[in-house]
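Hey, can you fold this one?
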Amino acid sequence: MNSIASAKSVSKVYVKGVLRKRFIKALQAVSLEVPEKGLVSLVGESGSGKTTLGKILVGLVMPSSGELSWMGTTVVKDGRIVRRDFYLANRHRFVYVHQDPYSSLNPSKSVKNILEPVVRKYRKHLSEADRLRYIKELLEEVGLVPAEYFIDKYPHHLSGGMRQRLSLARALIVDPHLVVADEVVSMVDPSIRVSLINLLKGVVESRGTSVVFISHDLGAAVYAAGDNSVYVMFKGLVLEFGPASEVIRRPEHPYTRALISNVPVPLALAERRVRGLDGVVEASAENPSVASPCPFAPMCPLVDSECSSLNLGDYVRVGPNHYSLCVRAGRLPKWRPSWLPTTSG
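Sure. Predicted structure:
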């Protein structure tokens, strides 16, 4: 399958301070492919590098090293745009939808006035009447119905979920090749999250637009990915990636197991977890001090001297399209969280 966007060995270092400079490694040799007409999920805790990677994929942030390709063409290499003509011609079709719908929309403009300037710029052939008709169709597509009710509303009239739908509607005007949806369900009620994720899936199916879904919520990331890939990130590295069903049922990195174990469970199971009977990965003061490139090593209960041989970027293949950045991947102790139903195979 062809990729709409891909990052190859991408790293990003931020420099803080003037006299006393600090170098912050946001990404370290990260590679990722977004398939055409597909959806992939990035999951990890705050500070794992998800947002930085998402912004690099759409060209908002330049990587310090590595390559960014769009539609098979390398556009950025080692922090420089190498195909400026191609980059400028396609930049507007790689869109980033921000996490906070409260600050990404102009509060002084109505829904119509938020969308109309973008429509006028990218749909120049439309007459005024056709523009209004198109805006209403767009609102209906993202679930803001009836469109006549919403078209003259202001952002403060809309709920968090409605604002996210409006942000997505604005992004769709340019017929994007790729939409990076950064934590778009983090500020809405749980009951609304599924409908927003289904909306993104619908965009993939109906428009053929590729989507990168970014979340700290493992359940949301796995649901969004469906049969596609999920990438598990921690401290600037992708520690495990593969088909969502494989990663969730057969995790082959201790950090992924920690994430899965921390999915909310019924109270009856929570007591077992606290007692350590659920196989949850916990930090231990008795862990040996091992010099390892793995950022999870200081907290990993399975760390040993073998971990010092890890080379960043050397993933272990543990299944079809399933990879782990752990030297013991495929040889980890058998494990299954208590809340996951037992299935054959």
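Residues 266-286 have pLDDT under 50 and may be disordered. Let me know if you want another pass with a different chain boundary.
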